[in-house]
Amino acid sequence: MRIHLVKSAEVSVELFTKIMDLLQAHPGPLNFSCNLDSVSNIYLDEKILNNIKTKEEFEKQLATENNLSDRLVSRKISFPFEREEVSWDTLFAKCNKYRRKNNIKEDEFVIMLTDIANNKNWFACLDESNPFNGFIHTADWQYFISCSAAFPIAYEVIALVLQKHMFDGMIDLRTAVHNSPIGCVNDLCIHKKEIILKLRTADVCNECMRLLQNKITMPKIHHALTIMNSLREKMLYAQNFRQSTPPGRLLIDAQKRFLLTDFGNIEIKLRPLEKALYILFLKYPEGIYHSSLSEHRTELYEIYSQIANMGDLNEMKERIDDMVNALSDSASQKMSRIKRVFEEAIGTELAKYYFIKGEPGKVKSIALDRNLMTIE
Length: 376
Known about the structure:
Blueprint: E1 2-7, H1 13-23, E2 31-34, E3 49-53, H2 55-64, H3 71-74, E4 81-86, H4 88-101, E5 109-114, E6 117-118, E7 124-126, E8 133-137, H5 150-166, H6 170-176, H7 195-201, H8 206-213, H9 218-238, E9 250-252, E10 258-260, E11 266-268, H10 272-282, E12 288-289, H11 297-307, H12 313-324, H13 330-346, H14 348-351, E13 356-357, E14 363-366, E15 373-375
Helix pairs in contact: 1-5, 5-9, 9-13, 10-11, 10-13, 11-12
């Protein structure tokens, strides 16, 4: 089963790539694909609705439209509040346009990811006229969950795929969902903050599982559940719920992927220069002064050439020269990003064992016990 993810222009490449990484972390019969060169521009010849509201107007709308998020949001929004909205018809038309342009088969999914809100303010929905089309709203998650939006968005991708096979049409879906949340993939989540429960359980209740078993093969169900549970585990670390856990093993495999093998094989996605700098610090448990990086220029050349073996040699050397230059902030920027990526992946407390840290002007090092580290 193939699921095509399409991003609209305003969705960042970084977020989109992280969503794809999460979905593709476990191989199986659900195949996720994307084409970053084929970006949908919703602003192009489509009608965008602009709404400007005072707090009172917004609260009134929340009271009358039960698909909207609850007052938690209104407490965090500055008023007057303005946002762009688009109709469901527009989003599904974009899915069909992508489907025609790329010759997508009828039984393959096309799911649009967009930051632009929809006029019914749903997280996600399937197209009633063609339930192999769907959309997911990628913005505003920061109001409800304290981790990267990639986790709930990836979860919603799996939820849409399962819901397509559980129900015979949107009427069936709307009558069979759980109005009161029970921690199942089919919780309606009238109030958006209720989604936290089903994200933390990553479960399908017995009744919904019964609906699935006659519509989709068990290998596909198992693959979907594996991805959901992986998202749950990774999200718990990212939200600091597993901070009493001791530091786990770091594997740098033959493809130079950074994998936390004791934490569900979470991959730490670093850029080649960041990987080179990190591996250098791993070689020196006692640490390195920032001002002394230039003394390790040759080592960094060698490490970087093994990681980024494609490209112009002179250009690669220039990048290393800039990074070890004491007057440049290149190394500091890369250390900051390394820290951020670890914190987003496993939370602020656990991350302290892994990122490069040290007081200004003092030695910088990685605290991780080297017995927990393997480089293939």
